[in-house]
Amino acid sequence: MDSLTIPIADDFHLHLRQDAMMHVVAPLVRAGGVGRCVVMPNTTPPIATAEDAIRYRGALEALAPDVEFLMTLYLLPELTPQAVSTAAAQGVFGVKCYPKGVTTNSESGTEDFGAYDAVFSAMEAEGLALLIHGEVPSNAEKDVCVLNAEARFLPELEKLHGRFPKLRIVLEHVTTAKAVDCVKALGSTVAATVTAHHLDLTVDDWAGRNHNFCKPVAKYPHDRDALRQVVCEGHPRFFLGSDSAPHPRSAKESACGCAGVFTSPLLLPYLADTFDRLGCLDRLADFPSTFGCA
Ligand code: DOR
Ligand code: ZN
Question: How far is the CA of 4 from the centre of ligand 1 (A)?
Answer without folding.
Answer: 30
